[in-house]
Amino acid sequence: MTISEVSKKCNISADTLRYYEKVGLISFVNRTSGGLRDYSEEDCRQIEFVKCMRNAGLSIEVLKKYFDLFKRGKRTLKARRDLLEQERKSLQTRLKEMQETLKRLDYKISVYDKALLSEDKELKF
Amino acid sequence: MTISEVSKKCNISADTLRYYEKVGLISFVNRTSGGLRDYSEEDCRQIEFVKCMRNAGLSIEVLKKYFDLFKRGKRTLKARRDLLEQERKSLQTRLKEMQETLKRLDYKISVYDKALLSEDKELKF
DNA sequence: ATAGCAGTTGGAGTGAACTCCAAGTCAAGT
DNA sequence: ACTTGACTTGGAGTTCACTCCAACTGCTAT
Q1: Which of A47, A82, A107, B91 has the fewest other C-beta atoms within 10 Å?
Q2: Do the Cβ atoms of A29 and A21 come closer than 8 Å?
């Protein structure tokens, strides 16, 4: 697959795909005889994974660390597991906070709806 | 309350508090005769709100817009409500995605745990 | 063989959200 | 009167994560 195909398929810009490769967030991609990137299905799965994790707020730093461990083979299994566990925890914490904020927004909107029904009321920020 | 008191209480750096005021994310804070900021309880509530929303991913841009509307009085009630509603929606979308990612991490960790029990196994990234 | 287009590189530029700094002010304690 | 320490300002610097650019290469179709 060419870079533009992957870009469309994964909805990530070609620049970002090159950037991810450059900083070691995905492994080096095979090239055609002409020097163009030729992504495999496996590459795509990895890219999808990275996209998903980035989207959830995992830093490039952390994901790079994960793949660096990966490159060092199976003796890093435990370290990788622990890294994932740690990220899982902090994701869960973020999620809880965001759920609280969602509730707060819901409440605030309901207060606005009441104010909008009874004309002439102002609210505190 | 002095800036350092609020900073401690809200766990936001004094620099950030000044920055939020400068960009219009919180209203201008009263000053003592000597020109020092003197935060009111109301100021604190607003700061807490901003912190909470920022933490959930709302941009400074959006929060500024909200407070700008606020300053224009009750004729902007509806606009403010709609802005909150929109942010609520996008927060909910983010939350769902992150929940999916959490599940994915859980699964991945469980796969690692299996691999760690049966020695000698390697995994795909 | 030449135009056109997708791809390549290294490196510079961008935007968001802080964070830090220097130089100065002010009130309180010795 | 002087030191100390918290505070002030405007503006520069930083970090993160891209995003863009210029100059170049190499297929493909005319």
Answers
A1: A107
A2: yes
Interface test with B, best of A26, A84, A91, A105 (most B CBs within 10 A): A105
Q: What is the mean pLDDT of chain A?
A: 96
Q: Does pLDDT of A49 surpass 80?
A: yes
Q: What is the pLDDT of residue B123?
A: 86
| Distance, CA of B6 to CA of B17 (rounded, Å) | 9
Ramachandran bin of B86, using left for φ above 0, alpha for ψ from -120 to 50, beta for the remaining angles: alpha
Question: Which pair of tokens denotes residue B108?
Answer: 């991945």
**Can you read off the two tokens belonging to residue A93?**
């914490």
- For chain B, residues with pLDDT lower than 50 are none
Checking if the pLDDT of A120 tops 80, the result is no
Rg over alpha carbons for chain A, rounded to the nearest Å, is 22
Partners of residue A52 in chain B, C-beta under 8 Å: 100-101, 104
8 Å CB contact of B125 and A70? yes
What is d(CA B59, CA B26) in angstroms, rounded to the nearest whole number?
14
